[in-house]
């Protein structure tokens, strides 16, 4: 009976150690989420006519065209926008993968950054070692715009009689 009890105690202690290890691994989740929310990658085309800003998850948060951009032909401008957009999104996704790797890479033995680079290399036809974009420091956060009040809800008939007499 004593050997059986010792075995149960050892199993319980092993279980507690794994719980502590899991808690330590996931302690950085809140910080990771905050850092991911701050991801921003800005890329300007080589000719300076197009700038694209991408955020977490590759969401495009801004596109700026220089005054000279309108002088480009429509096909060239479209191609420049698309190339710059792909680079901005790729860089933002790489930054996000790096944050996840920093937080969980060792715990799960996965290198998400390498996987992202390989997927981007396949999708964009670039070498896996060469990132599709160079991450840049985040721009200062602008104050959120205040929204104008919207038009009144035309579907709200509660204060009106919709039947005619």
Automatic annotation (TrEMBL):
Alphabetized GO MF terms? DNA binding
SUPFAM superfamilies, alphabetized: YbaB-like
Annotated spans, Disordered: 121-165
* Pfam families, alphabetized: YbaB_DNA_bd
Q: Record's InterPro entries? A: YbaB-like_sf, YbaB/EbfC
Where on the tree of life does the source sit, at the highest rank? Bacteria
**Ranges of Low complexity composition bias in the record:** 127-143
**What's the protein called, per UniProt?**
YbaB/EbfC family nucleoid-associated protein
Please name the source species.
Answer: Amycolatopsis alkalitolerans
């Amino acid at each position: 009976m004593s050997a059986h009890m010792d075995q149960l105690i050892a199993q319980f202690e092993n279980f507690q150690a794994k719980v502590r290890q899991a808690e330590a691994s996931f302690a950085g989740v809140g910080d990771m989420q905050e850092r991911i929310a701050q991801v921003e990658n800005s890329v300007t085309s080589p000719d300076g006519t197009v700038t694209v800003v991408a955020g977490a998850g590759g969401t495009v948060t801004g596109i700026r065209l220089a005054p000279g951009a309108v002088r480009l032909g429509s096909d060239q401008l479209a191609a420049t926008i698309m190339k710059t957009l792909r680079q901005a999104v790729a860089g933002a996704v790489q930054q996000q993968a790096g944050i996840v790797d920093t937080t969980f890479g060792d715990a799960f033995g996965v290198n998400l950054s390498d996987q992202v680079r390989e997927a981007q290399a396949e999708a964009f036809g670039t070498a896996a070692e060469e990132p599709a974009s160079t991450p840049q420091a985040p721009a200062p956060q602008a104050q959120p715009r205040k929204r104008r009040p919207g038009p009144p809800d035309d579907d709200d008939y509660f204060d009106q009689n919709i039947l005619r007499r």
